[in-house]
């Protein structure tokens, strides 16, 4: 059985990972956070001290082993789920993910990971490139002030303070880089359903998407 494939794309802070993870929990499906994979490559590149601007430096991916297990992400046997959220990774991940070689490697891994069972996969190019035949494609959005506020709240919860204007600036920078790169830019697949979450709670978004998967299944 190939299973149900649900693709969720959208810009930073639109709620992709939170919503996808909750849907997977509720339905007993597997969640694959592709952003975490690009972050893991970025972390490894920083640690290897390679020239981040040179695409050829990323050939370490031929032998590196980035994988998912039980909602945790690993480089070889090392759990890097928390480490991939650091500032250096966040500031460089859009650069790293703009290289065709890096994307080719990760898209291969993602397509393989999606083959078995019911999957919810979130990222930027899932509906357009990784799972073009997905059963349901959702594109989440929210206005930039709301997305920045969500990130700001996350920082506060971790006991960190952040300047709102700086958070907005960083998000806009990443949106711009992700939407304008040559290789599979962030864009809405022609058959995706656009869901603006600016004024929706997490639960409302989760229920709405589950309702849409039910409709597609019947
Ligand atoms: O911070 P946020 O959770 O929004 O980002 P993420 O999902 O962790 O993804 C980090 C970065 O990885 C994005 O800004 C993109 O540059 C890149 N990415 C990508 O290019 N393609 C994907 N399918 C997923 C992420
Ligand atoms: O993965 P992405 O960057 O798209 O977003 P996220 O990391 O899942 O969500 C960013 C933050 O927004 C999380 O702290 C969520 O709890 C919050 N959120 C929210 O407050 N309301 C929503 N409708 C969706 C997410």
UniProtKB/TrEMBL annotation:
It is found in: Cytoplasm. NCBIfam families: cmk. This is Cytidylate kinase. It comes from the Bacteria. CDD domains: CMPK. Pfam families: Cytidylate_kin. GO terms for molecular function: ATP binding; dCMP kinase activity. The lineage of its organism: Bacteria, Bacillati, Mycoplasmatota, Mollicutes, Acholeplasmatales. Its main location: cytoplasm.
